[in-house]
Amino acid sequence: MKNYIYKCSNCGAEFSPAEIENDFVYLCPRCGKAEKNKPLVGVLEIEYDYSEIAKEYDKEQFLNFSPGQFWLYEKLWPIDFTKTNREIFVRLALPRLQLFRYTLKNREVFIQDETRNPTLSYKDRASSLVALKAIELGIREIAAASTGNAGSSLAGICARLGLTSRIYVPKNIPEAKRVQIESYGAKLEIINGDYDAAFDACLEDSNINRWYNRNTAYNPLTIEGKKSAAFDIFISTKGEIPDYIFVPVGDGVIISGLFKGFNELLKLGWIKKLPRLVAVQAEGSNALVRYLKESVFDFKPAHTIADSISAGAPRNLFLAAKAVTESRGFALSVTDEEILNAQEEFIAATGIVCEPSSASVYAAYSKLVKQNKLGKDANILLLITGNGLKDIDSLKASLANSSETPAISKRILPGLTTATQYSGLPLPFPIRVSAGFLVTGLSGNILIQTLAPLLTCLVIATLAASIC
Ligand SMILES: [Zn+2]
Description:
Structural class: alpha/beta
Oligomer: single chain
Bound molecules: zinc ion
CATH topology of the domain at 99-118 and 223-400: Rossmann fold
């Protein structure tokens, strides 16, 4: 007997796990709609018997669990863990240390660092749960549409678990994310359009081929998987959860998953109030900000450098809006210029290489601190969801205004002879030569070090010849 049900977020209808899971149903069978360039209607949420779970664990016991190992508390997941070899769980582990304290803009803040997850983004939380459900259902092939992170995450998690992944991406996907997806052995489909087009194509092909679909928000386990960050924050702070959490918002699944996790902690009686969720969007992709103001959704194609939060039609718009209003939070947008400036400043101040979508939360935080909009003693957490090395062009753009290409040093150290411009050898980099040992721009290059004595002789011979 399973301890959970599926409940429609739109009409409130309830369904047993068998009614949803046995026949590839994702949205509410009564009112669900997945229409082009529109938020999904009838997204399903998973509900548990919280009074039963409270009998299983108490707060102190839960706080002794380790962050990053969600399978330790089985009752809070819609998975039959007996159908999975427990030895594979460690392949899904996130770092145990995720929460860091920094002084930024003259006040202390927490940073929840998701840049070091197995595939370097927050999306691993959802991919892991989806993959475990696929294994439980006996399915070996999973498909997903993605701006890059969800796809590389699913591809990486599938590679870890021996499953096949099919990833649909828009043509403007950052190159590093595309290469990452391909290197995991995924089957990649590049769509000649934007993320919204990739989403629709992936749904169509999944239905035809009966692949398990991980499209964000569409598969209810994506929201469910993303709640684990709330539990990790709860454990890492020893139950002293922050007053505000700044969250980057594209499709709206991270913020709704986070809200669900904290809401469950509230239902279990382990926290007294919800953290206020601050939804941060890019100005060129701010459907949630507009929806919260006007209570209507109007589609505008998204344009922003922050590809991970670029979504003209946020698929989980309605639950994201609920997360903001029910947590007494708010939403704001920041410009691409503010995002790039924030990215440069944040990385230099913290040593955490974040991508533009994550930098947007620091841009929003900086803006609100400047405007004195955050209470002096408020406890703040910035959620950093993706690694900046997955989007090297944006990283370079964030540095473009403040630095030039570093010049190669012409410094000559005492006792060294330079041969930087020696034209007789096809070397692409400057070399300093000293007593048969080379120091190159590629430190640790064994081949070069092996060739060092020979090259040294050549250089000395050439210099001698030119003197003669
Ligand atoms: Zn419904």
